[in-house]
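Hello K.,

You asked for the raw outputs rather than the summary table, so here they are, unedited. I folded two proteins back to back in the same session to keep the settings identical. This is the first:
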Amino acid sequence: MLKPLYNYVLLERIEENAKTAGGIYIPDTAKEKPSAGKVVAAGPGLKDEPVSVKAGDKVLFAKWASSANEVKIDGKDYILIKETDILGIL
């Protein structure tokens, strides 16, 4: 598994429900990528600022985060993102 450095956090996307409240199924091509994820691993933080999330936390992150990098590890998709692009813990 990848161990992030500095203030980077490794996230796994949390998939949203493919069915609306009215019972309509949304095809994969029409769905937006979710902006919520589960923390898989977190770096130690910067010198004087430790990372405030830990593995297992569910977080909401900026949809258009400039630091977001999609990575594939062992055939699974993850996002490597700076902690500053995390908006909050769910």
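The second followed immediately with the same parameters:
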Amino acid sequence: MIVLDTNALVFWTLDRDKLTHAAMTAIEEEEHRVISSISIWEIGLKVKRETLVLPLPVSDYVERLKRVEGLRILPVDDRTWLRNVELDWSHRDPADRTIVATAMLDSSPLVTSDATIRSFYQRAIW
């Protein structure tokens, strides 16, 4: 299993040229890809704030994600929230913390372009 952060998800589904070779290889070689449902929230906020432009409405994008073979959207459950608040990390972004917690719970690699996440989580790939 491999976890994709929000940017990696958007790049992988809409603009693969923005992924590094290592990130693309890691995603394509893994049979089970996972995103946290908090990425949907983050995408929605970015679209609403006009810092992200999608070629379709967010609801349609999410429906398409649900049909991507080998991709699962994990809910943020109590276990994930508890891991999130237990992180010994001063980073305050709730989405980043939740995505890292999701990866950590199963010791999964995490594909991310975010240098702050990569400096904290040793299994990060970019």
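The mean pLDDT is 97.

Happy to rerun anything if the numbers look odd on your end.

Regards,
P.
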